[in-house]
Amino acid sequence: MNTTFSEELIRLAKKDLQVRERLLRENKLSDGYHPEMEKIHKENARHLRHIIDQIGFPTISKVGQEASEAAWLIVQHSISDPEFMKSSYQMMFEDQSDINLKHLAFLFDRIQFFQGKPQKFGTQLNSDGSIYPVMNKDEINAMRKDHLLPEFSQEEIDKIPPIEHIESIESQNPDYIAWRQKVGWK
């Protein structure tokens, strides 16, 4: 196990979460992607790319559970770099026996969400807190279970908007649409 990379990943993730917490307390995260948060995310992604160049994706056997989770958090927050998120997902998918399967589900859904496509596991939420549309409501709990996520109640599943509502959900925030186009999601 590479302890140097483990320590670095954990430090980067903690910094991300500390800045996020501070900005939340200051009520500065409700108006789009805060520049300070974006800067942290880009710096962390740059560090993670360097680690990936050295050892591949930081799986549990390579860096330990906590550091592997930190690597996923860095990827999950690299929202202004679609290609990095997609390539990281592919590496995680290939190493899925050596990562937390929840992370694979969250990252898949996050990529779908930013592309304006239905998610598979129901991990991403609309701005009102409701679950973003999913590919298959009938199979969602089986897929969640396979990826170590808790099942939804039937009531929660029934509240998930249909796929046909994606366009109207997204059209509620023109700034979000412009940002996605700027960074390459759409």
Account of the protein in words:
It is built from 10 helices and no strands. The protein has helices at residues 3-25, 35-55, 60-63, 65-76, 82-94, 101-115, 140-146, 154-159, 166-170, 174-183. The longest helix is centred in the first third of the chain and has 23 residues, at 3-25. It is globular and about 45 Å long. The model has no long low-confidence stretch (mean pLDDT 93).
Number of helices: 10
Question: What amount of the residues lies in strands?
Answer: under 5%
Question: Which outline best applies?
Answer: globular
For this structure, the quaternary state is single chain
**Helical proportion, percent range:** 55-70%
N→C terminal distance: 38 Å
Q: Would you list the SSEs in sequence order as H and E?
A: HHHHHHHHHH
Number of β-strand runs: 0
Instruction: Please tell me how large the radius of gyration is.
Output: 17 Å
Major sheet details: none
As residue ranges, the low-confidence spans are none
Structural class of the helix and strand makeup?
mainly alpha
In short:
By secondary structure, the protein is mainly α. The protein has helices spanning 3-25, 35-55, 60-63, 65-76, 82-94, 101-115, 140-146, 154-159, 166-170, 174-183. The mean pLDDT is 93.
Give me some keywords for this one.
62% helix; mainly alpha; 186 residues; single chain
